[in-house]
UniProtKB/TrEMBL annotation:
Signal sequence region: 1-25
InterPro entries hit by this protein: TPR-like_helical_dom_sf
Keyword vocabulary terms for this entry: Signal
Source species of the chain: Treponema primitia (strain ATCC BAA-887 / DSM 12427 / ZAS-2)
Keyword Signal tagged: yes
Protein name, as recorded: Tetratricopeptide repeat domain protein
Tree of life domain: Bacteria
Length: 494
């Protein structure tokens, strides 16, 4: 029959109950995992016109922003496009028309100056401030309305426009009113049309440029908003924008492949993982696991989600184990084991089993308890929850502890026999062999002291018999041999 200690300890180490502790049942208000319906509706449009680009640009700018009023700005775009087309001096020549549109948007809208992170169209209309993306999208809308073939271009950290006129591709640096075909000479005129001089807008060194479609250009509004939110640690707010970007670009034709234009599906999983990591870093590992369980089902990426879940679970277990909350660590692992791959479950189980065995080993007080914990170690070895080297460490601790208990109780002979039996079972072990030498020394001291008590009491006959029996146990011990000589001389001198 197994002892109560063994039954309880084994249950602690090998429990299979799906117990959910209140700590793991906590639920945050997670970001939603469904995109805005407009994103899918926009994605289904096959041929975008300038009004579509304006509408989608306003949506990308304001989605998730409380109180956003895009209808008024959409009306502003339509009216302003009508004004542009009605201007009597709108050039017929397409090159001149492209430059004219750039001047038009700067004079009418881009009055607040360049601001690096101001990527939203609605904010552009409200304040006049802009960056490369918002100004490029605005130019795309009005240049397309004016009949120009306009496409986007991006580099590692910049966006601009190309106007296609026949076989010619003309760059447009939309952040600069002089940015049409940068590097060419510009004429300056006064208010009466008189030529006053020339200026040059230096062409930027656009290395590793990537051509992108108009809808991909608009999606950079969402990309920039996501980046800005994550820079400020607002990962939960970045998730919906990533969902919307992925949905918007899902059905695009000939999607661009570039190191600079992040794949929307991969980018989405990155944002989901970043939000989970933010929970992990704030010691909300349990919530991060719940988030991973929810998000990974809807947006799978087995390798990266498994890496995240393992790291999060490891952090949680380490934190609990360091606080000696070992039972809670076991509960947490059991409650979340379905999220883990078999390999990672074994690794984390090893972590908890180790802590459980250390705790149980420290509590060993009897021979029965020592025997039980040694059986658990053997079972954990077979199960793969313990390495051979770690099993030897814990096993030695238990054996040494029990041997010391026996030796301290004056039973050094029992300690020697117990440790020798362990050596016979588990093989050579320098630490255990060293302990046997100590126990033998203690045993010799016990025998010598018992002999001395008899000898000092004058019971030489009994002392003689006792020391001869002791020498049978330790036949070559020098101290015991001296004791025998002493008692023999005493007997002869009587």
């Amino acid at each position: 029959m197994k002892s109560k200690f063994f039954a309880g300890a084994l249950a602690l180490v090998l429990a299979e109950l799906a117990f959910v502790h209140p700590l793991w049942a906590q639920t945050l208000q997670f970001p939603g995992l469904d995109p805005d319906p407009s994103a899918s509706a926009f994605a289904r449009v096959r041929d975008y016109n300038w009004q579509d680009i304006g509408e989608i640009g306003l949506w990308a700018s304001s989605v998730g922003v409380s109180g956003a009023n895009t209808a008024a700005y959409a009306e502003l775009i339509r009216n302003s496009a009508a004004d542009l087309l009605a201007l009597p001096d709108l050039p017929i020549d397409l090159r001149e028309r492209g430059e004219f549109v750039l001047t038009f948007i700067h004079q009418r809208f881009l009055k607040g100056g360049y601001v690096e992170h101001q990527t939203r169209l609605d904010e552009l209309f409200r304040t006049g401030r802009y960056n490369c993306v918002s100004s490029a999208v605005l130019y795309t809308v009005f240049a397309s309305a004016a009949g120009l073939d306009v496409r986007g271009v991006m580099t590692k950290d910049h966006a601009f426009i190309t106007v296609h006129i026949g076989d010619e591709l003309i760059d447009v640096e939309t952040t600069n009113p002089m940015g049409f075909d940068p590097g060419n000479r510009r004429e300056f005129h006064d208010g009466f049309g008189r030529l006053t001089g020339f200026a040059y807008v230096p062409a930027r060194n656009y290395r590793d440029r990537t051509a992108i479609s108009q809808i991909e250009l608009v999606s950079l509004i969402l990309t920039n908003r996501i980046s800005e939110l994550e820079t400020r640690g607002r990962y939960n707010e970045a998730v919906p924008l990533a969902l919307n970007r992925a949905a918007l670009l899902k059905d695009r034709r000939d999607p661009v492949v570039s190191d600079f234009f992040s794949d929307p599906q991969k980018d989405l999983v990155d944002r989901l993982l970043n939000y989970g990591s933010s929970l992990m870093k704030s010691n909300q590992e349990a919530a991060a696991l719940q988030w991973a369980a929810l998000a990974s089902r809807q947006y799978p990426d087995p390798v990266r989600w498994q890496e995240f879940i393992y790291a999060d679970m490891n952090n949680l277990l380490v934190r609990l184990l360091r606080g000696q909350r070992i039972a809670e660590a076991r509960d947490a692992l059991e409650a979340n084991k379905e999220l883990l791959s078999p390999e990672n479950l074994v690794k984390l189980d090893t972590l908890v089993v180790d802590a459980e065995l250390v705790q149980l080993s420290a509590r060993v007080k009897t021979a029965e308890e020592a025997r039980d914990i040694l059986q658990i170690i053997e079972y954990a070895l077979v199960r793969g929850s313990l390495t051979e080297s770690r099993a030897r460490e814990i096993r030695d601790f238990v054996i040494l502890k029990e041997g010391e208990r026996l030796s301290s109780a004056g039973a050094s002979r029992d300690a020697i026999e117990y440790t020798e039996a362990a050596l016979a079972k588990y093989g050579r072990d320098p630490q255990l062999e060293g302990s046997i030498r100590v126990y033998r020394s203690n045993r010799v001291a016990e025998l010598h002291n018992a002999f001395a008590a008899l000898f000092n009491a004058g019971d030489y006959e009994q002392a003689n018999r006792f020391i001869r029996a002791a020498l049978e146990e330790f036949p070559r011990d020098r101290n015991l041999t001296q004791d025998l000589s002493l008692v023999e001389r005493a007997l002869k001198s009587r």
